[in-house]
Amino acid sequence: MAASSAMTTMAPVVAAELFEVEAAFATPYKLSKNYGTLATTRAVMLKLTDADGVVGWGEANPMKPFTAESPAESAAVLQATLLPALLRDPGPETGRSDALCDALLPDHLCAKGAVSMALLDLTGKRLKVSVATLLGGALRDSLPVLWPLGSGTAADDSAVIDERAAQGFASFMLKMGSAPVAEEVRRVAELEARYGNKITLIADANQGWTHAEAAEFLAGVSGSRLAFVEQPVAKHDLEGMAQLAAGSQLPLSADEALTSLAEAARIASLGAARVFSIKSSKNGGPLRAQRIAALAQAFGIGCYMNSMLEFGITQAASLQHAAVIPNLVDAGHAFMSTLRLAEDPTDFSALVRGGVVHLPRGPGLGIEVDEDHVRRMAVNSLRLGAAP
Prior knowledge:
single chain, Enolase-like, domain 1, 2 domains, seven-stranded parallel sheet, four-stranded antiparallel sheet, globular
């Protein structure tokens, strides 16, 4: 590292490396009929190195049909458009780089999010502060963590709940949309009869219902203690979501429907959701996600920190953002993703203890990335910029 360089200012990024990585789930994950059962997850990891040798890491977590782009498409956009523009910038700042990426491409939020995360990580390391500090300052240093339950029966759920509750988890998301609605209503009733108020339950249909099916479910669970019901109908049916929300005592959450700030504004103005499902990669990185969270606060909407089947880089970016959001919902949040994977090249999992995730103290994203492990996991990789 050049001793003469002023580490309080940004230096040009001189090299960018992309790694398309894949890992298996420890247990296959059964979602709604729209997504089926997942056995693996794939992501694009981005390493940026500046002229002083400071490194920042980012991650893109696209997954069709949940997102419009695939990992291969994210990598291609990064290689052809976003990273060449970044490498031409003599002193990249995250906000300005986000604006440049938006000007170059109207979509590809996951790819843009990887650049944004990596620049925030790099900036925090240069300034020796956390990303939470860069985003305005942490309001909390820990959060309860949710555990997801794949589509199945109450008996299937109970086996997992009992195991995870003993480890400290107290919030559980029920994936739905594969079984008939009447069975899902019975599933909620059976779990509430067994556990009462000892745990918090969330229902997530992942767009798996028609409007009529969603209305049937909401009517069937109207007296339940569900914290909220996530994305019951297709993401484009915001008017239908608004009708369901107006007729339900339970809050609805927007997930697949919530990507850009413009869509967030439309959801809020229609009254289509009382909860926003924030995902750092889906929403284009922490700065873009922060604008969505601020809009939610203005409309009295709560924020739930969700995940895209992520590795530790995105989980860390999401946690740094979560620490600064005042309007989080009172439930567990999705910081268990790395615990469900057969391998992860970061130490993020060590931050989750007793069903609680703890904000790391280090600069930038606050995690360690094992680059050798990343390279071993890579199914594709490429480098742009200066030679190593």
